[in-house]
Amino acid sequence: MDNQRFILWVTLGFLLWLSYQAWQQDYAQAVFQPGSQPAIAERADSLQDTLPDIVIETSSAAMDPATITVQPSATESLGQAQPPQPVQANKAPVIHVSTDVFDLEIGLQGGDIRRATLKAYPVAKDRPEQKITLLSSNPADLYQLQTGLRTTEGASAPDFQAWFRTEQPDYRLADGENELQVKLHWNDGHGISGIKQYTFRRGEYGIHVKTTISNGSDANWTGADYLRIRRHNQKQERSMFDVETFSFHGPVFYDGEKYEKLDSDEIQAGEIDGTYGNAWIASIEHHFLTAAVPPAGYDYRGSVRQNIDELLALGPGHVIQPGQSHTFEGSLFIGPKLTDQLEDLASGLRLTVDYGWLTIISQPLFWLLNKVYGFIGNWGWAILIVTVLLKLLFFKLTETSGKSMAKMRKLQPRIKLLQERYKDDREALSKGMMEMYKREKVNPVAGCLPMLVQMPVFLAFYWVLLESVEMRQAPFMLWITDLSSRDPYFILPVLMGAAMFGQFKLNPAPPDPVQAKIFMIMPLMMTGMMAFFPAGLVLYWFSNTLLSIAQQWRINKVIEAAG
Hints:
The protein has 563 residues and is of the alpha+beta class. It has two domains: 3-21 and 363-561, no CATH class; 45-340, Beta-galactosidase, Chain A, domain 5 (Distorted Sandwich), CATH 2.70.98. It has twelve helices and 21 strands. It has helices at 3-28, 264-268, 339-345, 359-376, 379-393, 395-410, 412-421, 426-439, 448-467, 491-506, 513-530, 535-561; strands at 45-47, 84-86, 94-98, 102-107, 113-124, 127-134, 143-151, 170-172, 179-187, 192-201, 206-215, 221-232, 250-254, 259-261, 274-276, 280-285, 288-293, 298-305, 308-314, 318-320, 325-336. The strands form four sheets. It has an eight-stranded antiparallel beta sheet with strand order 9-10-11-21-17-16-13-14. Helix 5 runs parallel beside helix 12 (535-561), helix 6 crosses helix 9 (448-467) and helix 10 runs antiparallel to helix 11 (513-530). The two termini are 26 Å apart. Mean pLDDT is 78; it is low at 1-6 and 20-90.
């Protein structure tokens, strides 16, 4: 095996891998799960919007909250499908909340955030007025993040069907203020009252939510809080030239130790059912997510209903005696996958920045990239500087490969003579070349190991550029105004292709004429493919190729000078 053949197979393998990932997203999962009904987008039906009733198991110590367990009733277990009933998008009154990062709507029925518009994130660079919006009550694109309380059958609780009141219709984070509190009031008319409070902080996408229940009646009130994410899982059409093709879109779960991306089959099989400490649930997509983080010791369940993924965190039951109160707390995250904010909110939440199996390498790479950006304030220059640093890190390894290439290049005339002499005897040709390699102390496989060591780092850098929301719509210079989208004039891909062709000419030609022809057209193939990839990725590939050319040119000169 020679270096040229190895490079060829690695490059082709990478292209096949990209195609396979796109195929997996488009065809590997069926549009409908077994037993499911037509997609909600095509019919005005949906499952009954219910939560499990609470069964309070009591004993002689029934007044002690520690002895109370909360579980779904037999008739409304999350694992059982409910009969479909027609629903309409919820038209209940809403209040508006505006912070420096959010424009939100909170429904007075249920007291849940219905819509969250992210002020700093336009849908497209050329449409700055249209912002990314998460959450929806419309059946066709249902996306709900719900919080509330459930209680024993026959009693009232501030759940998703309860009505709240508020002191004003609009709330705004004023200039100079760092915190905004939105309070919603509820009571059952029989002495049980509650205050649901959302706390928003300047610059943060994490939201603290707490509900305080006061018992003004003459009987015990028993209940438990819940956090729930429900989302329509309709398949999205994508192509391999859409960077979102390679990003997971759906529910995820963290059990305190392990992070899992869930598909519908896993949820149906009860993959997450159980009680966990320091766990959380979330729904992710490319660059954005919603997450619910309850306190430790909650009971988690998952299900798929009518093409809707559903994750539920149900807290332990609490008995509130007459004249007493109790506060239930949790945290939400609605917004971009900013690693610092995710890590501050909950352990493991930064794993939603989906670097895949190369996370262990990608996270340090992003840390380095972010540090460089902190000094220079431009992600394009940060990419170039980190590319140089990576090249320096692997300089000695790539030098081994480069020397082997240079020696092979020097032997090209003699190799051609051998090919002409033994053109009809492949065995003799192979024997003659091996004797020449041994005599000249040239190892044709010497450069393979360094390339194998570098490949995971290069792929990890690829995923960092692909998944980091910090580089979404980030400008570089001149005509590159968005590193996360393709070069509008295809200049960078053409320059990259030209650099790859120059690298090919600098290296020794493969002995096999078929391989030589493939290597000739490889730059053209890569130019065509990379033309539709984000400019940041092409910038990285182009700059890395230029550095490789400079290093190989220097090595060739040294080898030639040595005679």
